[in-house]
Design the sequence.
């Protein structure tokens, strides 16, 4: 029951990632093409653009949602691959615990960054003021 | 070795789809791309953490990761994403029980689910290929 519930969340996370990461990849990795037809920025990693996005509530929320979904989907996928090696129960438990702890630590760090940068409006003012 | 037959396929067995065909290659590639994306994603979390240091630290980190070798790495991540995402849509459709076809008598020529799902597989691979070409064109445009 627990495994089928985790599998369901794995699939659900994939659907969330498909939309959010799809938009993120489009913005970040298709900038040259999209900007030529009037969407987004040609250089989406320049600090003005990065901090402009980071300091909008909708972006902060979607970053955290994408972070959680992608960490769960990726680490659950890794755990499933490792479990296929026919491991002992103890080893399975250890791998499950390592994946869970790694996921939680990364989620806390990523969320801290997203929230902290959102709360630093002076950064955008510095970027807009022409400083680096 | 049993009954004169060698079951040990070695390296060929690891990468060959054998009688499972294209689905098996897609399965292997889905896992490989998934692992690659996960490794990149974990690094990405720490790289984007440079925003905490403000624009100066961000610019300095981007100057480092703006080198052609990292741009090539980003292209590989995009290609992996294109395959993993589009093939993932196919897997979800199949997982939810669509495209299985109606049950029928096992009469020759036999019809089976992977055969019925082949058109979906072809369409999915074409869409992934188109996305990869667009990603490649973007890479070419920024590296010119």
Sequence:
């Amino acid at each position: 029951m627990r495994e089928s519930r985790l599998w369901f969340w794995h699939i659900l996370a994939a659907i969330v990632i498909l939309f959010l990461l799809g938009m993120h990849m489009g913005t970040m990795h298709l900038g040259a093409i999209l900007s030529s037809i009037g969407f987004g920025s040609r250089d989406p990693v320049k600090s003005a653009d990065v901090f402009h996005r980071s300091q909008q509530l909708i972006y902060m929320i979607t970053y955290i949602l994408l972070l959680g979904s992608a960490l769960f989907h990726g680490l659950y996928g890794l755990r499933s691959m490792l479990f296929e090696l026919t491991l002992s129960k103890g080893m399975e438990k250890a791998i499950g615990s390592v994946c869970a702890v790694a996921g939680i630590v990364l989620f806390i760090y990523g969320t801290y960054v997203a929230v902290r940068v959102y709360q630093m409006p002076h950064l955008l003012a510095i970027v807009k003021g022409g400083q680096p | 070795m049993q009954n004169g037959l060698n079951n040990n396929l070695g390296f060929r067995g690891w990468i060959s789809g054998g009688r499972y065909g294209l689905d098996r290659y897609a399965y292997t590639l889905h896992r490989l791309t998934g692992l690659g994306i996960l490794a990149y994603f974990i690094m990405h979390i720490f790289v984007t953490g440079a925003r905490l240091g403000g624009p100066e630290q961000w610019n300095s980190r981007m100057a480092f990761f703006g080198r052609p070798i990292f741009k090539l790495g980003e292209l590989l991540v995009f290609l992996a994403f294109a395959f993993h995402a589009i093939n993932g849509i196919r897997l979800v459709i199949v997982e939810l029980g669509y495209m299985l076809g109606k049950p029928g008598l096992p009469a020759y020529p036999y019809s089976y689910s992977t055969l019925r799902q082949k058109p979906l597989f072809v369409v999915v691979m074409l869409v992934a290929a188109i996305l990869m070409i667009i990603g490649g064109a973007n890479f070419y445009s920024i590296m010119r």
User: Anything to note?
Assistant: Chain A touches chain B through 40 residues (CB under 8 Å). The CA atoms of residues 54 and 100 of chain A lie 27 Å apart. The longest helix of chain A spans residues 89-118.
